[in-house]
Known about the structure:
Strand content: under 5%
Amino acid sequence: MTSRPLFLGVLCALGAGLLWGLVFVAPVILDDYPPVMLAFGRYLAFGVIALPLALRGRNRLARLERCDWLAAFELSLVGNILYYLCLAAAIQLAGAPLPTMIIGTLPVVIAVVSNLHEGMLPWRRLVPSLGVIGLGIVLVNQHEVGQLNGNLPAGYGLGIVLALAANACWTWYPIRNSRWLKRRPQISSDIWATAQGLATLPLALIGMALTGWWFARSGSFNFPLGPRPGLYIGLMLAIGLLASWLGTLLWNRASQLLPTALAGQLIVFETLAAFGYAFLWRGQAPGLLALAGMALLVLGVMLGVRVFRNKSAV
């Protein structure tokens, strides 16, 4: 791996992280919408957006084999539907700070799990960047948890469990996705993103249909568009296009260009973006503790990139 693929891979991971950070503010903006409406609405939009893209790339999609489509369904179910259901529910039950902290550990968790399986680097070379990222996560989230002021939401315990489940889903997803793309290098990043959108569409349709049936019986929500239909549709389409399709495309490209252990560390860009968007939404500037944590996150990424660049040079 030369410095050019490394640089392009980091840029793609940065773009994906900036786009994925948007999904953390959606449950806060639409706090009067149940998590199932946010999850299935987002991925229904993702699937619908993938349809015209699939029509344009139908010749390349036709080259995908049955095993590719099974992998796309598998990745869509765990990495899309289950992950965002758990994340949205965790944020609404426990508030944004703690779930964001748990998801924020993904850069360290994914890098550790990847290196355990692939063994690309000796641990003594990987630990410094992971340690700096971990310390940055702690500092940033100390500030965030402090926002609770000791007032724990009623569903705090269940929210923690769901956040851990979301963490497990997204530890598995990038590792599995990266291995599949390296195993099938002939699949382009945009076609693989579109294939995952198509695979997500039937899952989202089934989920939305079951959700409608449930709300029709319980009468607890004004299905299908809720109390703010314009905002709901606009936000779901924006997240479906930007976070789901374009973010997946960029992450697929990063997964093709970078070792999984390094790509895992770069999910820290999603954490940084999520906190940045949260501060913008609140209309407040981050405190010194949060700024120090963010600086450490960036430093940790730089150390990680440097380690892999040096390995390539050797």
